[in-house]
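Q: What residues go here?
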């Protein structure tokens, strides 16, 4: 279970980290260029399936490591951070996706939606990195 918690949480970090690094180049793009760039993410929803798996793996790790209080706390922290990632996605990222029909429709408030989308992914990269650190520390104890 330790291996699964670390690997799945690490894989779940890949997409938010990629979004966070790309933000540096995309945040200042002109409207037409930004909407074209966003099409690179078509089909990335499948990567999002790693998040519930990471949540379950870290809960499973907490159960498996129940004899080690610190490892349990770290595993629960990892699971809670993954849950926070999912909440941030549902509250900030998904509404921007819906308002732009997955970045195929260009509403008047596209710039505020872009900021909401880009910064929610940046925050989720940090949250998921912390989850990965917790999962790793729990598993190497």
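A:
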């Amino acid at each position: 279970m330790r291996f699964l918690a670390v690997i799945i949480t690490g894989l779940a970090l890949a997409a938010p980290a990629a979004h966070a690094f790309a933000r540096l180049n995309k945040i200042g793009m002109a409207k037409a260029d930004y909407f074209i760039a966003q099409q690179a993410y078509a089909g990335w929803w499948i990567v999002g399936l790693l998040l519930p798996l990471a949540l379950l793996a870290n809960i499973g790790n907490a159960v498996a490591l129940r004899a080690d209080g610190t490892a349990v706390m770290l595993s629960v922290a990892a699971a809670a951070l993954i849950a926070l990632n999912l909440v941030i996605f549902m509250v900030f990222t998904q509404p921007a996706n819906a308002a732009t029909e997955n970045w195929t429709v260009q509403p008047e408030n596209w710039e505020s939606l872009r900021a909401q989308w880009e910064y929610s992914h940046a925050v989720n990269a940090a949250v998921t990195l912390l989850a990965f650190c917790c999962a790793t520390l729990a598993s190497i104890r």
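A: Context that may help when evaluating the design: The mean pLDDT is 96. The chain is about 80% helix and 0% strand.
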